[in-house]
Write a structure and sequence with these properties.
With 136 residues, this protein is mainly alpha-helical. Helices cover 79% and strands 0% of the residues. It is built from 4 helices and no strands. The longest helix is centred in the first third of the chain and has 41 residues.
Length: 136
């Protein structure tokens, strides 16, 4: 009994430390995103071929993924289904981030098919977990 209490308290402490670090990371990345956005807008031109704001997309997804991880920490005492759903959501977000920044023209078609199958399988898994969670 006492051993479980020590493990639980240690787990809570680690979650707290990781949450603080994640919040600091989010703050730094948000400031960086504003700076990148400001730079992009200040040198934007309608005659330019380069799309506006594309360099900030990876930073945006880093923030989004970290927020999802924080969500996982917040509910670390909930059911295993909730944890798995949040982890799948983080995985889907991370893969989609890579797909958005991927240069499709120079990628092999088998790699693209593999990425598509991976995203589809994660989404199907998330769907079934959501359905199972709603039944309870």
């Amino acid at each position: 009994m006492k051993k479980d209490k020590i493990i639980s308290k240690t787990e809570d402490l680690v979650y707290l430390i990781l949450s603080i670090l994640a919040i600091l990371f989010i703050i730094i990345e948000t400031v960086d995103l504003f700076y990148v956005f400001y730079k992009e807008v200040s040198r934007f031109s309608f005659s330019s071929e380069r799309p506006l704001g594309l360099s900030g997309v990876p930073i945006f997804f880093n923030i989004l993924i970290t927020l999802e991880i924080l969500e996982t920490f917040k509910y670390h005492h909930n059911t295993i289904l909730s944890k798995v759903k949040i982890i799948l959501l983080v995985a889907i977000t991370a893969i989609v981030r890579k797909v958005i920044t991927l240069d499709i023209k120079h990628s092999e078609h088998l790699i693209l098919i593999g990425i598509a199958v991976l995203i589809l399988s994660f989404c199907i898994g998330y769907y079934f977990l959501s359905k199972k969670e709603n039944v309870k």
